[in-house]
Write a structure and sequence with these properties.
With 215 residues, the protein is mainly beta. The chain has one helix and ten strands; from the N terminus they run H-E-E-E-E-E-E-E-E-E-E. It has a single domain, classed as Porin. Strands 1-2-3-4-5-6-7-10 form an eight-stranded antiparallel β-barrel. 20% of the residues are buried.
Length: 215
């Protein structure tokens, strides 16, 4: 419900707000960080541990007032361990893309709402090993488009802090290769998928910082 409210509020403000603050020609630098850490217990025994982080550096330029065109990269590493069977898995993700972002100031305050749309590609490598299941690995290549709203706060004219729901709506084409068992069994699939984090409670918020240089 909170995600839906944020999306509706962003649309409303974009339609009716008119203030412009980010000047044409400004350089847009920064990065996003998102992550998770979770421990599952059954009785007094820990049965599962999950943790990971995704980092995304960003570079862009204001091509018009309050309109940013830029590029970004993505690096993510997530680990999972299960007990007492000592199963473990690791997922590594690498990618990048380009985006366009539109800002609107909330009245005369230091807060901005923004909407961002992007085109990107990513490579994901998943490895798992367990005493009963053996080893398995999965390689996934995706290319797709995504869009999401967010909220930014201008600490100063050159520094902004922001948050949002990464890939609130996304459409992807993926190629998936999986190897498992001994001897290895290989399977390949490809297809198109659509997702929305409006119905995905596990999709976490990201936190970001942006530096505006130049004009």
């Amino acid at each position: 419900m909170r995600k839906f409210t944020l999306a509706v509020l962003a649309l409303f403000v974009f339609i009716f707000s008119t203030n412009a603050q980010i000047k044409k020609g400004s350089i847009f630098l920064g990065g996003d960080v998102s992550g998770s850490s979770q421990k599952t217990k059954t009785g007094d025994m820990t049965t599962n541990k999950q943790n990971g982080v995704t980092i995304s550096p960003v570079f862009g330029k204001a091509i018009k007032e309050n309109l940013i065109l830029g590029v970004n990269a993505i690096v993510g590493i997530y680990n999972n361990k299960s007990f007492p069977n000592n199963g473990k898995s690791k997922t590594e993700s690498y990618g990048g893309g380009m985006f366009i972002r539109k800002y609107k100031n909330l009245g005369a305050s230091s807060f901005y709402l923004f909407a961002q749309a992007g085109l990107g590609a990513a490579y994901h490598h998943y490895e798992a090993e367990g005493p009963y299941t053996g080893s398995a690995q999965q390689k996934i290549f995706t290319i797709g488009i995504n869009a999401y709203p967010g909220l930014a706060y201008a600490v100063s004219k050159k520094l902004q802090l922001e948050t949002g729901f990464n890939s609130l709506v996304s459409l992807n084409y993926s190629i998936n290769k999986m190897e498992s068992g001994t001897p290895a069994t290989v399977s390949k699939t490809n297809g198109i998928s659509f997702s929305s984090s409006l119905s995905n409670a596990t999709n976490s918020l990201f936190l970001g910082i942006r530096v505006l240089l130049g004009k």
